[in-house]
Amino acid sequence: MNLVLCDQSYSDSILAILNEAILNTTAIYDYRPRTPDMMAAWFDAKGKGNYPVIGALSDKGELMGFASYGTFRAWPGYKYSVEHSIYVAAPWRGQGIGSKLLQEVITSARSRNYHVLIGGIDSQNAASIRIHLRFGFKHAGTIRETGFKFGRWLDLEFYQLILETPAHPVDG
């Protein structure tokens, strides 16, 4: 497996992974598949925010999963906090790809002087919760019945990892 920075040439593969998750899982609380235009806007926002899109490629060059992070909240005081997302294609789940992507997200966030990584995880996603705990994330709260999908209420749990960066944070 190789980890790469993804540009828009990976858009179709990322779209397929994301749409499968939308249609079949509670990893994302969305109902409708994304369109190519929505992906183009997503990549544009990642570029403008200088947020990486990290891909995990198989030895044959297939995109097995991807991860990224972005703005946690839009106010300036949150500038050292980011929320991340990790998606693994269905055929590749349970093979350690999510762990490798999470490690790279942590490394990237640290190198860019972020202080807090935040993951919002459906309370029933035991695999994602286990991975985050293994990497030192701590449970930071649960918002009960905050989502509704597949005919049921969903609880959203937040996990956070506090990094030692930046060395000299500043206001403004």
Summarize the structure in words.
With 172 residues, this protein is of the alpha+beta class. The protein has one domain: 3-Layer(aba) Sandwich (Aminopeptidase), CATH 3.40.630.30. 30% of the residues lie in helices and 33% in strands. The chain contains four helices and seven strands. It has helices at residues 11-24, 36-48, 97-111, 126-134, and strands at residues 2-5, 53-57, 63-71, 81-88, 116-122, 138-149, 152-162. It has a seven-stranded mixed β-sheet with strand order 1-2-3-4-5-7-6. Strand 6 (138-149) and strand 7 form a beta hairpin. Helix 1 (11-24) packs across helix 2 (36-48). The longest helix is centred in the middle third of the chain and has 15 residues, at 97-111. The chain starts with a strand and ends in a 10-residue tail after the last strand. The model has no long low-confidence stretch (mean pLDDT 97).
Based on the model shown, name its key terms:
4 helices, globular, alpha+beta
Span from first to last CA?
40 Å
Total beta-strand segments: 7
The number of distinct helices, counting runs of at least 4 residues, comes to 4
Total domain modules: 1
Radius of gyration: 16 Å
